[in-house]
Amino acid sequence: MIKVNGVSKDYANQRVVDDVSIEIAPGGVTSIVGPNGAGKSTLLGMISRLLPMSAGTVQVGGLDVTRADTAELARHLSILRQDNHLPLRLTVQDVVAFGRYPHTQGRLTVQDKGHIEKAIAYLNLQGLEGRFLDELSGGQRQRAFIAMVLCQDTEYVLLDEPLNSLDMKNAVDIMKVVRRAADELHKTVVLVLHDINFASCYSDMIIGMRNGRVLHQGPPQTFIQPSIIKALYGLDVAVHEWQNNRICVHYT
Ligand SMILES: Nc1ncnc2c1ncn2[C@@H]1O[C@H](COP(=O)(O)OP(=O)(O)OP(=O)(O)O)[C@@H](O)[C@H]1O
Ligand SMILES: [Mg+2]
């Protein structure tokens, strides 16, 4: 369970996350959507302790994130940041192996190597293991970062815009990996997505943020409605049912 209780973030005298309280049940996929600047990344940053909170508390699997031991937190929770600042002179193999660090402190066992191989295969990175990050396309690099996070093998996985730079097929593959991680490995995955239809088709829960607040929260069946999308983005959309999914059409 992720419990976010009365969390706010202030920069100078601007409040960018405003008294957010949410509970995310264990073992499922939750998507956070909302316009640019809504506070999605800031919220994820505070849940993972990358950013200090101005007010409130966050518990992840019973751990108080402000007080938890760093290594222990990293064994429970992993995060893919929207902007990664890893040095580009690392190979794919190095980056993915980096995900094992909280478990090994650098000494890889046979089991760790198994995790690394599996993550590389899951993200279709075979053959690219020896390449440096600056020798990859944007989408390949994004897949290497996702492989690193999956390799950390934590119960809670936070992914900030994991579909950035990915083509349609790779985006669908990532969402299937995410779904499998929740369904088969009972992981709790929280993603920030801009594609509302990916959120609709692959999430158990959707959280809609605007101006630092949670405007609406619910399963895709209740969330994907023209009135909610209009309130979030100020955009008129049509919603269609297709193969038991609600699809939002917004090209007019
Ligand atoms: N270091 C900072 N100093 C001041 N303001 C900041 C800082 N970081 C973010 N902000 C502001 O906080 C607000 C929320 O930013 P955040 O990155 O959380 O938005 P977001 O919902 O993730 O947007 P996007 O979809 O564009 O990634 C924005 O108005 C942003 O300009
Ligand atoms: Mg963001």
Summarize the structure in words:
The protein is of the alpha/beta class. It has one domain (2-249): P-loop containing nucleotide triphosphate hydrolases (Rossmann fold, 3-Layer(aba) Sandwich). It contains ten helices and twelve strands. It has helices spanning 40-47, 70-76, 92-98, 101-104, 110-122, 138-151, 168-183, 196-202, 220-223, 226-233, and strands at residues 2-11, 14-24, 28-33, 55-60, 63-64, 77-80, 156-160, 188-192, 205-210, 213-218, 238-242, 245-249. The strands form three sheets. A six-stranded mixed β-sheet has the order 6-7-8-3-9-10, with helices on both faces. A four-stranded antiparallel β-sheet has the order 2-1-4-5, with helices on one face. Helix 3 (92-98) packs parallel to helix 6 (138-151). It is globular, with a radius of gyration of 18 Å. The chain binds adenosine-5'-triphosphate and magnesium ion. Residues 11, 16, 34, 36-42, 82 line the site of adenosine-5'-triphosphate (ATP). Magnesium ion binds at residues 40-41, 82, 160. This is Iron ABC transporter ATP-binding protein. One of its GO terms (cellular component) is plasma membrane. It is a peripheral membrane protein. One of its GO terms (biological process) is iron ion transport.
For the record, what is the CATH homologous superfamily label? P-loop containing nucleotide triphosphate hydrolases
Query: What is the approximate shape?
Result: globular
Computed structural class: alpha/beta
Strand sequence of the main sheet, in spatial order? 6-7-8-3-9-10
Biggest beta sheet summary: 6 strands, mixed
What CATH architecture do you see? 3-Layer(aba) Sandwich
